[in-house]
Amino acid sequence: MKKSFLSLAIASVISVGANAGVNDLLITEMVQKNYGAEVGSVEITNTHATESFTFTDETAAFMWGNGKYENQMLTAEGEPLLTGITVEAGKSVVVLNSAASDEYKQIITDNGGAFVIGEGNGNYSDFYLSGNDGFYIKTVM
Questions:
Q1: CA-wise closest residue to 113 among 133, 130, 88, 135
Q2: Dist CA 81 CA 136 (whole Å)
Q3: Which among 96, 87, 83, 85 is positioned nearest to 126, based on CA atoms?
Q4: By CB atoms within 10 Å of each CB, which of 45, 46, 83, 138 scores lowest?
Q5: Which residue in 83, 87, 81, 75 sits closest to 114, CA to CA?
Q6: Which stretches of the chain are assigned E, i.e. beta strand?
Q7: What CATH number corresponds to the domain at position 125?
Q8: Among 126, 65, 80, 121, which residue's Cα sits nearest to residue 100?
Q9: What's the sign of the alpha-carbon dihedral 108, 109, 114, 115?
């Protein structure tokens, strides 16, 4: 019995360490939308050496609007923006606002990246960065 319990404990530690987690994600670039500009974006990179990371309903993207409002980023259908998005080890996904040009999207894919559009559902859940906005990822329950 002791051997089985010890084996289970060791296997749990090894398997947890082998999977990419939210702590392996790094916001590597933010581009703020200026008046007249069409691009506002955030690049999220998975820094894990070997494992991909898939966003679930428990890991969500938020904007800290005007330095005081916490707004969860949603799809046009009202679902969490990044749910189901997988970021491969060493790769990035770019969150774009809905005004991003096809040329900008093509540059991302030509460089091996992926993107998702932060359309929102009209309740401060769309993706527009300005000088006093922040972006972060957190675990929600």
A1: 88
A2: 13
A3: 96
A4: 138
A5: 87
A6: 25-31, 41-46, 53-54, 59-65, 69-72, 86-87, 92-97, 114-118, 134-139
A7: 2.60.40
A8: 126
A9: positive
Q: Domain span at residue 26?
A: 20-139
Is 15 part of a structural domain of the chain?
Answer: no
Q: Which two tokens stand for residue 104?
A: 């900008």
Q: What would the mean pLDDT of 106-131 be, rounded to a whole number? A: 79
* Rounded alpha-carbon distances, angstroms, from residue 13 to 17, 52, 75: 6, 18, 35
pLDDT value at 8 more than 50: no
Residue 4: which pLDDT band, with cuts at 50, 70 and 90?
A: very low
pLDDT of residue 124: 64
| 7 is a domain residue | no
pTM of the model: 0.77
pLDDT tens per residue, range 57-109: 888 888 887 777 788 888 888 888 899 999 999 999 999 887 788 988 999 99
In a domain, 135, yes or no: yes
CB-facing half-sphere around the CA of 114: CA atoms within 13 A: 14
Q: C-alpha distances in angstroms, 34 versus 13, 22, 23, 90?
A: 46, 30, 30, 30
